[in-house]
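Q: Hi! First time doing this. I have a protein sequence and I read that you can turn it into a structure. Is that right? Here it is:
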Amino acid sequence: MEIKRLNKGEEGRAIAVLAEAMYDDPVLSWLFPDPEGRTRAMPYAMGHFTSRAMATDRVLMDGADQAASLWFLQGGGAPPATSDEDPVGGGAAPEAFVPYMERLDLLGRIVTERRPAEPHLYLSVIGTLPEARGRGLGGALLGHRLSDNELPAYLEASSPRSRELYLRHGFEPHGDPIRLPDGPTVYPMRRPAP
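A: Yes, that's right. Below is the predicted 3D structure, encoded as structure tokens:
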């Protein structure tokens, strides 16, 4: 399976794929509970995280543009993926985020507190278009990036199904699961350095 690393200027397809692929993600559904509001917010959210991945590590896609993953370098002086003051990054929040700022802030604080302080590779987002799920694309993207990584890796699994995928790739629980208020459970996971 072909895996490609996107270059600057190629981010648009990854943003579109992830906005669609992550639309039904349990955490993003909690974060943006209104379906119409989620449709408006997802391109901004995925655009922000795609930009961060391009700046600190990489964006990977499969050869057919059906799945994408966003990777950050974290810790050891790298800028954080989010900050307590600005959970979406880049200054003023887009209008699409305004109704959800309380949840954005809460989620940003909760996950930032749990991340390791040591330098690590952070999987921010990984998603596959609904019609391509179950074909191993997510596992291929994950395995590809982890194969040339010498740092520990960290992520937050947003569902029991994704948690199982990460366990198969050597990730282990990193503390207790996080139960979002009136929402899903998030599973912090860490993979030791190879």
